[in-house]
Design brief:
β7 (about 125-130), α5 (about 135-140) and β8 form a beta-alpha-beta unit. The chain is of the alpha/beta class and about 600 residues long. The protein is globular and about 85 Å long. Helices cover about 30% and strands about 20% of the residues.
C-alpha cells in the first residue's frame, strides 16, 4: 500500500492530544447500556456519539449492544463493525462481558430488568446538564429534559432504549461542550482498516486533485430533492471547472442517469476504481464509510441536503486542516456563503440530525483573563492552588495580579512560578484608590483574552468552575451580559469543610438613594434571597468581588483613577449600564469569598 497521505491531515485524529478532558472522568459511577437507533450507518454513528458523550458526562462505562440488522446493509453489524470501539475515550464493555460480570443469562432483556430505562425523545428535546435555562438559540423550539432527572446516580445501570438520534452538540446542553467535541473528534472514528482502504482510492485519484459529489437516490425519503442530472450539471458548473476529475458517491445503480456529468467531467465511481486496484478482501458494508473518507480529500465536496451521509463528510473535512474549502455546497442549491453557518446562527433549523455546522470542528478552549488584587500572599497562593485544582482547563487561564504589600510577599509569590501569570507590585504604604489598582491590571496586564474574571482573594472554586462560568455567561440572551454578585462566604480551604453547601447566588437590588452626604456612596444595595435552581435573573449592582464578562468590557468600561473607594462600584455599575451591559446572576454558585468577619 502506498503512503502518499502520510504527510497530510487525512488521519486527522492523530494530531490531537486531548488528555486534559478526562480530569473528571474515570467511568466508575455506573454503566450506560446503549441500544442503537433503528436506522442506517450514519444514524447509528450519531447514536454512538451521543452514547459516548452521555457516558462521559455521567462518568459511566458504556455497554455496547450485540450485532443487529442495519438498513440497508447486508447481514448483521454493530458499532464495532465500523468504529474503533476499543478506544472510544470512555470506558466501554461488550454486552457479553457485562452479562458475564453481572451473571445475566437473558442478554439485553436481563440488562433492562436491572436498569432505569431511558426512552425520552432526543430529537424533540434538548438534554440539559446545566442549572441555567437553555437559551432559545440552542433549543430552537424544542423542549427540555433535565439530565439531573434522567441520569439518576442511584441506579447503577441506565438503559438507553434505542432513543438516541441527532448530532451530539445540537442535542446536549453542557458547559463541557468543547470537551465533548474533542472527545468525539479524537475517539469516535472509523476503523483503521477502513481508512487504509480509502487511502488507496484517494491515492488513485490524487489527493486534493479531484472534486466530489454525493447523489443519493435509491433509499432517500426526501424525494422532493431529486432533480435531473442535467439540473445537477447546471448547479455544478459554477463550482467545478469543466473537464475536472469528479468522484461520484452514489447509491444509484443506473449509470445512464449520470451521462450528462460523464460528458462534462472525468467521472469516477467506487466500483470503477475498485476494479483497478489490487485490494484485499474487505467487508462490503464498509463501502459507505470508505466513500465518505474518499470525499473528504476532494478540492470541493457537493452534498445532498438532509443527508446524514453528506453531513458527516462536511464535518470530517472541517477536522482536516489541509482541506481549505470547507464550504457547505449542495447539489440542488445555488451556493451562498451564508449556508455554512454556525448552529447558533442558523434560522433555518429543522432537526438535530439534518446537518453538521462549522462549530463542530471549533475545538479550541477560549482564553480567560483573571484579575486579582491581593493584600496577603498566603491568601493569594491558596486561592491560586484551589482555582487551578478545580479548573477543567487551566492551560487557558491567564492571570493579571497586583500584590499590594511588602516586597517579601511579592518575592514569595514569584517563587511559585505559576504559568501564564503577569504580576505587578505596589507598596502597601503607597496611597492609591482601588480604581487605580484595578486600572493598572487592566491597562498593563490584560492582553485581549476572550473572557474577563475579576475577584479579590481569598476565594474558593467549585469543580469545573471555568467551563461552567463561561456557559452561564453564554446562556444569557443579551448582547453584553455581566455576571456579578457578592459571592457567598466560605470559612476555610480545608477540603473537609469546603463543600458546595453554601447556597445559591443572590441578586443585588438598589434599595435607596442618599443625596445628603458627600462622603457616603449615593446608592445602597440590598442582598436579595438566594435564587432557586435554574433561575437566571437581573441584578442591579456590579460588585468588584466578582465580575465575569467578555473581555471587550475591559476596554469599553473605564472609570477614572481618582475614583474613591466608596464611588468605585457605583461608577462601575452606572458606566457598564451606560455602555449597554446587562447585569445578571445565575443560581449556581461557582466562586466563594472569605470575608473577614469580626
Amino acid at each position: 500500500m502506498t503512503t502518499d497521505l502520510s504527510g497530510t491531515d487525512f488521519r486527522y485524529y492523530l494530531k490531537w492530544d486531548f488528555e486534559t478532558i478526562f480530569k473528571y472522568y474515570d467511568g466508575n459511577a455506573g454503566y450506560l447500556y446503549l441500544k442503537a437507533w433503528n436506522g442506517g450507518l450514519n444514524n447509528i454513528r450519531m447514536t454512538l456519539e451521543l452514547g459516548v458523550c452521555l457516558a462521559f458526562l455521567t462518568n459511566r462505562c458504556l455497554i455496547l449492544p450485540p450485532k443487529h440488522a442495519i438498513y440497508p446493509l447486508k447481514g448483521q453489524a454493530g458499532f464495532s463493525s465500523f468504529f474503533e470501539t476499543q478506544s472510544l475515550g470512555v470506558k466501554q464493555m461488550s454486552i457479553e462481558a457485562f452479562c458475564d460480570l453481572k451473571n445475566i443469562t437473558t442478554g439485553e432483556q436481563g440488562i433492562r430488568e436491572i436498569s432505569k430505562v431511558l426512552n425520552y425523545d432526543s430529537v424533540g428535546n434538548v438534554t440539559n446538564f446545566e442549572k441555567v435555562p437553555i437559551p432559545g438559540h440552542f433549543t430552537k423550539g424544542r423542549g427540555t429534559v433535565h439530565a439531573f432527572d434522567l441520569f439518576d446516580d442511584t441506579y447503577e445501570v441506565l438503559f438507553s432504549d434505542g432513543n438516541l438520534l441527532g448530532n451530539f452538540y445540537q442535542s446536549i446542553y453542557s458547559s463541557r461542550l468543547i470537551a465533548l467535541k474533542q472527545l468525539v473528534a479524537k475517539y469516535v472514528i472509523f476503523k483503521k482498516q477502513i481508512f487504509d482502504i480509502a487511502e488507496q482510492f484517494i491515492n488513485y485519484l490524487g489527493d486534493r486533485c479531484y472534486y466530489a459529489i454525493h447523489i443519493r437516490r435509491d433509499d432517500f425519503q426526501h424525494k422532493e430533492l431529486f432533480i435531473s442530472c442535467e439540473e445537477i450539471v447546471q448547479y455544478l458548473e459554477h463550482l467545478v471547472p469543466s473537464g475536472s476529475k469528479l468522484y461520484i458517491a452514489t447509491d444509484h445503480h443506473d449509470r445512464s442517469f449520470f451521462y450528462p456529468l460523464m460528458s462534462k467531467y472525468q467521472t469516477a465511481f467506487f466500483d470503477n476504481i475498485e476494479s483497478a486496484l489490487d485490494l484485499d478482501t474487505f467487508d462490503g458494508n464498509w463501502v459507505p464509510a470508505m466513500e465518505q473518507l474518499i470525499c473528504t480529500r476532494a478540492l470541493k465536496f457537493v452534498g445532498m441536503k438532509y443527508s446524514t451521509f453528506s453531513s458527516y463528510i462536511y464535518r470530517l473535512r472541517g477536522y482536516m486542516d489541509d482541506i481549505h474549502d470547507d464550504n457547505y455546497y449542495l447539489n440542488g442549491s445555488i451556493y451562498s456563503s451564508g449556508l455554512q453557518t454556525s448552529f447558533r446562527d442558523d434560522s433555518q433549523y429543522i432537526a438535530n440530525w439534518v446537518r453538521d455546522y462549522k462549530d463542530v470542528w471549533d475545538l479550541d478552549h477560549p482564553s480567560m483573563f483573571i484579575a486579582m488584587i491581593a493584600y496577603d500572599e498566603n491568601d493569594l497562593i491558596q486561592t491560586m492552588e484551589n482555582l487551578l485544582d478545580n479548573a477543567s482547563h487551566s492551560e487557558r487561564l491567564y492571570f493579571g495580579i497586583l500584590i499590594k504589600g511588602s516586597k517579601t510577599s511579592f518575592r514569595k509569590f514569584l517563587t511559585k512560578k505559576y504559568s501564564n501569570t503577569r504580576v505587578l507590585f505596589s507598596n502597601k504604604r503607597k496611597k492609591g484608590s482601588r480604581a487605580l489598582l484595578w486600572n493598572r491590571i487592566k491597562n498593563e496586564l490584560y492582553e485581549d483574552e476572550q473572557y474577563f474574571l475579576q475577584i479579590e482573594p481569598p476565594n474558593a472554586f467549585s469543580p469545573k468552575w471555568d467551563e461552567t462560568l463561561i456557559n452561564q455567561l453564554e446562556s444569557i440572551e443579551v448582547p453584553n451580559p455581566i455576571i456579578s454578585t457578592l459571592p457567598n462566604h466560605f470559612d476555610s480551604f480545608d477540603e473537609n469543610t469546603l463543600t458546595q453547601t453554601f447556597g445559591n447566588n443572590s441578586p443585588l437590588q438598589l434599595q435607596k438613594t442618599s443625596i445628603n452626604s458627600q462622603e457616603d456612596s449615593q446608592l445602597t444595595v440590598l442582598i436579595q434571597p438566594p435564587l432557586k435552581d435554574f433561575e437566571l435573573v437581573s441584578t442591579q449592582w456590579v460588585s468588584n468581588l466578582l465580575i465575569f464578562t467578555h473581555g471587550r468590557w475591559v476596554k469599553k468600561v473605564r472609570i477614572p483613577d481618582e475614583t474613591t473607594d466608596l464611588e468605585e462600584e457605583e461608577l462601575l455599575t452606572v458606566t457598564s449600564i451606560q455602555k449597554g451591559y446587562d447585569l445578571r446572576i445565575t443560581s449556581e454558585t461557582l466562586v466563594w469569598h472569605r470575608y473577614d468577619f469580626d
